[in-house]
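WP5 quarterly update. Target: Aminodeoxychorismate lyase. Source organism: Methylomagnum ishizawai. Length: 281 aa.
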Amino acid sequence: MVLVNGEPASQVDVADRGFQYGDGVFTTLKVLRGVPLFLEAHLARLERDAARLFLPVPDRAVLEAEVRQLCGLKPEGVLKIQWTGGGGGRGYRRPDAPTGTRVLGLHPLPDYPATLHDQGVAIRVCRTRLGINPALAGLKHMNRLEQILARAEWSQADIREGLMLDTGGHVVEGTMTNLFLAQGGRLHTPKLDGCGVAGIMRGWVLVGAAELGLAVEERRLSLDEVRAADELFLTNSVIGLWPVSRLEARAYPVGPISGAIWRWLTTKIQAALDPSGPISH
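Structure tokens (predicted):
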């Protein structure tokens, strides 16, 4: 089910700037039991990202109503909310008063084995590098060609994710996830001031680590530091948290820190749902 500006649709105007130039932002979240998880945080991020790109800020009340409409029709899935620069003539210059286009789609949940949360995943390092551009750093904008190229580098079903470095050689993120490493009882995650996406689940992990008394540092990370970590784990709003069990030839334990963070996240997810029953991962 897809809504375009509030109407059921399967297409957008070919003149839309999101289609023509990738001029827009988006956010993706999980829906369980009819509840869009962490919706407020996702909409706040969408508004911040739109403002940073000098797009008009979408009407939150309208978005919330359309989210409720979709979740009422399909209680589980992956909800993608896109906000574009709207229609416009040819050329990069936006209209003087862009109106924006809303596209909300609710799609089936991916068929990830539940055991990945406990057993971990195998990942690799991608050859494709992320360009450094502080003006876009942290944003979930609609230009994803770097991630598309990186994801095209492998087809093995047992490799769940690929790590991406920037052109300076620092590890930034996965193609669809944020990265955390544990070393000596401390958490580290790449600093996202040059490129990368500041994921909603990444933000919750930072909050959870503070509540659990874990020190966290956001900083530049080399590939050697990542390989030498005691634990690695990945996060996004659909998978939640995946421990890393193998990075190419190096094996990692599913350790206590990733376990503690995942239990904390699970309580937050459960709190958003009917507390009378267990959640389905």
